[in-house]
Structure formats: structure tokens, C-alpha cells
Amino acid sequence: MSVTHVELPASSHIHPPPDTFIKKYVFSLDHKVIAIQYFITAGLFLVFAGLLAELMRVQLMGPNNHVLSVAVFNQAYSLHGTAMVWLVGIPIVTGAFGNLIMPVQIGARDVAFPWLNMLSFWMLPVAGILVFASLLFGAPQAGWTEYPPVSLQLPLGESLSLWCAGVFVIGVSSTITGLNFLVTIVKMRAPGMTYTRMPLFVWATGVTAFLSMIATANLSAALAGLFIQHNFGVPFYDVTRGGAPVLWQHVFWFYSHPAVYILILPAFGIVSEVIPTFVRRPIFGYKAIAYSSAAIGLLSFMVWAHHMFTSGLQHWEQLFFMLLTMVIAVPTGIKIFSWVTTLWRGKIRLDSPLLFVLGFLSTFTLGGITGVMLASVPADAQEHASYFVVAHIHYVLFGGTIFGIFAGLYYWWPKMTGRMLDERLGKWHFWLMYIFFNLTFLPMHWAGLMGMPRRVATYDPMFAGTNLFVSISSFVLAASILIFIYNAYRSARYGEPAGPNPWGARTLEWMIPSPMPYYNFRDVPIVLSGPYDYGKPLPYANISQDLAMTPVR
Amino acid sequence: MAAANAHAVSDAEYAEVSGHRLLGFLFFLISDCVIFGNFIFSYLYLRNAAPLWPPVGIERPYLYLAAVNSIVLFGSGATMHYAMEGMRHDRRSQFIGYTLATIVLGSMFLGGQAYEYTHLLPHTTWAGTTFGASFYTLTGLHGFHVFIGVIFLIVVLLQTLRGTYTQERHFGLTAATLYWHFVDVIWVALFFLFYIY
């Protein structure tokens, strides 16, 4: 294949290789290092927030336990939700995976604004410290949504301010990351990479970046409103002076509903990358999957009030949001069917990334179905604020996002570190996590439908058996993550070298050595067609053929 | 930003990098617009929920000063436009003169707003009513943007005097201009919502 000479893009000169330890590992400008920083920091927060959840499960082992006081229990679930959404989920799916993979998949050497990227990352530990520091002053107790008037009534001291400040900081970070990624995807694709030749993970990241940019800016404004209400008594949400608590619910959910798609779209992207690789056939419905991501992105701005069906909406509002919420299940269903059709009669290789994807498909579909149930106004009136909602959100965010994250980790670990993870441990991890995830969250559906409310430290003894069972399952679920941590340690110590392309995948990140070199590509690649045409020659020019053609394990 | 290495990069590289920055800056303005949109939504929501608007005992804000102030701000948009025309045609003195005029007009707007806050609105405070909450939050946020815009213009003017920008390479000026026009447009919405609607 003839190799054409291509001018290096100017942006490749933005930052020369770092020469000091601080520049290389602390204030790094390299998107790959920043991605690993995100993984480690958000991973630490995952441990904190997970321990908070386990504390709650210890309290809930009996109907009238006194392990935690009611106030501490309230603080635990408030910070668990806050941390899992803003300090764990969003940073991992956007900051970590987006940074690690997206620039390489479009053939770029870095994101458009490396300095802003570094700034975005360093806001994450600051935000985490602010949020967790609120524990010292008595953390907010009104849940991760912090609805007034409850969030304003309790004697909270400075803690609501800390909470607002922490979430504000991570919100700004998320907005900046979104802006940065969007410019990168629009401006820095390799020659020949049209929008419909982009890998599906890039599509997902692009839509997510758009949502981060628009919706999270709105969150910043909403938090500023809550902050000035709390500190200066500006009566936005104070009903005694003409304010409206429901206004907070509107402005909060106008962000937070798109935020659940920020959490799930990158996981969709990961699934779309893993399935064709482990099934060895072109993905079914490339354009359907790509455009349905965009459709989800647009629709996600028009469904926020389905969180507020019991807050006193007008009937026409309830009808409008109910129908649109049901409509958003259509593009999601299109994706599920496309993935299943890709798997159909494929030559499936059940390695751990694909196992996690299959886990994702089953649990996320179940969570999606309960989502449609909750979208129905009459049903929601019954299910609202019950354990049914807790079960639903964990099926989509744990069964969806966390399974997607682990699928991505097992898939790109060799690319990130240059070493393989142990396959046997990976399978143990998957099966333990999958079984005990379902044993933990499936019974919550019944508890909720039978009337157990969420966010309570004590409950009716009729739910004692269910809760004990759920608590014990949740301990095993948490322990299953230890297998992954051991596997990561083992891989660093004894893992066999991965080579550039251990799975035989076709996207651009696998066309360069593992771990990825500083400038990613020696020569800028030229893209000749889409990335999923298994069975045809690779669609790239200007890449090193000896790297691309390494045998599949 | 572009200034430090203005002569170390080729024209093509400068064009590419400023293309990235321009798009990034537009995205920033869009997200800033969302912030205003959030507070405008809050204002309309609270206004719609109130039985009487403005609330009992509150007078509408004084229209005439705001009208004069609006003319001042829109005038500054025009002077900014002529300043950029000067830069595009390499007429340096035109650029400097009109930018100075823009800075003066922007400062006059801020002065008018300060006078309005201190003298013309004795009947409500920020924390007093939902009217005060929306009015002071939105116009204050806008005033803060004008203030930042004035600082931005002073900085790019000083940079121009030091020779940072040329006819071809002036991304910093483009950004400052865009920002200034953006602040103008936001004011159109606020003027309508608070003084006329």
C-alpha cells in the first residue's frame, strides 16, 4: 500500500513530551495519562461511595437496627448518590474512557485543548474533597437531589454550601470536558474519517459531550440558585416568600435527566465496540445505532418532568412527559435490537469483555422496562419514592453503566497498560458480580411494589427477610470488585504482554503499540471506510502494517 | 493565549488552532446562554406562580434610565463592530479609537446600573421578594458579564498596543468581540423581560 505524506496537524505541536515527573504524572497534558488519573481518582471515590452503601445495608439488615442514627443514614444515602453520579459515574465514562479512547479512535494526537483537559481533571479531586468534607459538618440529608424545603429546613450548617460548591465544581469540569471533546470530534478527525465512518464509541462520546456542555451549564445555574437561597435567603425556592420548591425540581431535573444519558451513552458506545470484535462480524445497523444516540440526546431534554409526576403537575404536562418518556425507549430499543442482531449467528467468543456486555444487555433491558413502567403516570403515583425506583435506577446505572465500565476496562486494559488481564479471574469477577447484582437489586422490585419506601433507616418488619437477603447479597457484590483489583495487580506484576491488537479489533486505537506512545500516531492515518467490516482488508492507509497485522490471540 | 507564540507558528497552523479555539469559544457562549436561560426560566416560573406581578408594594423598575442604558450598550456594540473593521483593514488607529469608545460606553452602562441599584429601586432587595431575587440575580449576572467584557477589552487593547495582534492573526480580538456582542444580545432579552413585559 502506498504511503502518502500528510502534514502533521498544528495541534500536535501544542505540548512537547514532558521532562519532569510532575509534568508527566501530576499536571500531565497527555490525554492518556489524564484518563488514568480519572480512573484512579474516581475509583477511590467509588470505594468511598460503595462503603457508604454497604453501611446502609448493614443498618437495613434488621427492621429496627441502631447501627446508624437516622441522621447519619440520611447523610449516607445523600452522599452515596451524589458521589456515585458526579464523582464516579460521569468522570469515568467521560473523563476516563472518553480521554483514553476517543482521541485515538479519530486518529488525533490529543484533545483540542489539552490544558483545559488537565484543568477539568483537577477539578475532580477538589469537588470530591468538598463533597466528602461536608460529612465533617453534618452532610446534607435530603438525598442526592437536595429538594427544598427539606434541604433548607434542617439545621445543616455549612454543609449544604459545601455540597453545592462541590457539585458546582464538578459541573464546571464536566461542561469544560464536553466543550473540549466536542471541538475535538468536530475539528480533529483524521483525513477521510467522515461522521459516518467514526467508531460508535466516538458517536456516543460526541452526544455525551453535547449533553455535558448544555445540561451541566444549567446545573451550575441551579446550584448557584440553591447556594444563594441557602446563604443569603434569596427566595427562589422558599414558598413562604413566593418562591417555589417545585422550581428547583424543574431546574434540577432539566440537568439530571440528560445526566442519566451522560452516564449511559458512553456505556452504549463501549458495548457497540466490544460486540463486533468478539462476534467477528460487522455491527448490524451502524447508522441506526449512531443516529439513535443523537435522538436520545435530543429527547433527553424533553422528559425531565417524569421525575415529578407526584409533585403537582398539570394533567397536560403529565401526559406530555409520559408520552415523550415512552418515546425515548424507542431509540434505546433500536440499539438493543441492533446489538442482539449482531450477536445472532455470530462466531461468539465469550471472553470477559463480552461477558460483561451480555450482562449489560440483560440487566439494562430489565431496567429499561421498569423505566417504561415508571413513565406511566398512574403506575408512578404508586411506585414513586419506593424501593421499586431504587431497583430501577440500580438496574440502569449499575447494571448498565457499571457493567459497561467493566466491559470497557477488560476490553481496553491491554491497550492502556500493555498487559493482559487474567481471563479466569475475569470470568469469576463477572459471574459473581452478575449473580449477586441480581440477588441484591431484583428483590427490591417486590419490596417496593409491596410498599417499602426508599430513604428510610427503619421499616416494617414484614420486609425483614427481603432486606436481610439483599444486604448479604450486596456484601458479596462489593467483594466481587476485589477480584478485579487483584486481577489488575496481578496483571501489572505477571501479566503477559498484550501486543498491539490482542482481540483482533479494527478501530484505530488497535493500530498502534500498547501502551500507546506519546504522540499516538507516528504518521497521521488516512481512513478509507468504516471500522467494522470484518473479513475485509483494514480501511486505513499510513499506518504501520506490521502493527496492524499481528495475529489474534 | 495565541499571543505567546504568534511568530513561532506558520499561518496555516495559526488558522487551524484559532479555528479550534473559535469553535470552543462559541460552545462556551452557548453554555453561558444556558445559564441565563435557567434564571430566565426561574423568573418566568415565579412570575407565573405569583398571584400579582410585581408583588404587592413593589413598583416596576424605572424604564427611562434602562432605555438610555440600553442605547448606550447597543451603541457600544456598534463601536465594537467598527473597531474590528479597523483591525480587518489594518487601520490601527481606527481600532484603538473605537475600542476605547466601547470601553467607555461599557463603563457608562455599569455606572447607570449602579445608579439604578442604589437610587431607583428602594422598595425591594435581593433577598426581599421573588421579584428582587430574579431581577438582581439576572441583571447582576449580566452586569458581571459586562464588567468581565470591559476587562477583556482593556486587556486586548493593551495587547494590541504591544503589537500582539495583526491583520491576519487576532483570535483574541475575535473572541472579545464575540463576547461583547453576546452580552449585548442577552441584554435585549433582559430589557424586554423586566422593563417592558
Provide the domain count of chain A.
Answer: 1
- CATH domain fold name of chain A: Cytochrome C Oxidase, Chain A
End-to-end Cα distance of chain B: 42 Å
Identify the most extensive interface between protein chains.
A-B, 41 and 36 residues
Shape of chain B: elongated
Question: What general outline of chain A do the C-alpha atoms trace?
Answer: globular
State the total count of DSSP E strands of chain A: 2
- Work out the count of structural domains of chain B: 1
Content of β-strand of chain B:
under 5%
Oligomer state of the chains in this structure = heterodimer
- Rg result of chain A: 23 Å
CATH superfamily of chain B: Cytochrome c oxidase, subunit III, four-helix bundle
Task: Write a short abstract of this structure.
By secondary structure, chain A is mainly alpha-helical. Chain A is built from 16 helices and two strands.
Topology:
The complex is a heterodimer of chains A (553) and B (197).
Chain A: H1 21-26, H2 31-59, H3 70-105, H4 114-133, H5 150-153, H6 159-187, H7 200-232, H8 245-279, H9 286-299, H10 315-343, H11 352-375, H12 377-383, H13 387-417, H14 423-449, H15 464-494, E1 526-527, E2 540-541, H16 545-548
Antiparallel strand pairs in A: 1-2
Helix pairs in contact in A: 2-3, 2-4, 2-15, 3-4, 3-6, 3-7, 3-8, 3-13, 4-6, 6-7, 7-8, 7-9, 8-9, 8-10, 8-11, 8-13, 9-10, 10-11, 11-13, 11-14, 13-14, 14-15
Chain B: H1 11-49, H2 63-88, H3 92-120, H4 130-161, H5 171-196
Walk me through what this model shows:
The complex is a heterodimer of chains A (553) and B (197). Chain A is an all-alpha fold and 553 residues long. Helices cover 65% and strands 1% of the residues of chain A. Chain A has helices spanning 21-26, 31-59, 70-105, 114-133, 150-153, 159-187, 200-232, 245-279, 286-299, 315-343, 352-375, 377-383, 387-417, 423-449, 464-494, 545-548, and strands spanning 526-527, 540-541. Chain A has a two-stranded antiparallel sheet with strand order 1-2. Chain A is globular. Chain B is mainly alpha-helical and 197 residues long. Chain B has one domain: Cytochrome c oxidase, subunit III, four-helix bundle (Four Helix Bundle (Hemerythrin (Met), subunit A), Up-down Bundle), CATH 1.20.120. The relative contact order of chain B is 0.16. Residues 1-7 of chain B have low confidence and may be disordered. The chains are: A mainly alpha (553), B mainly alpha (197).
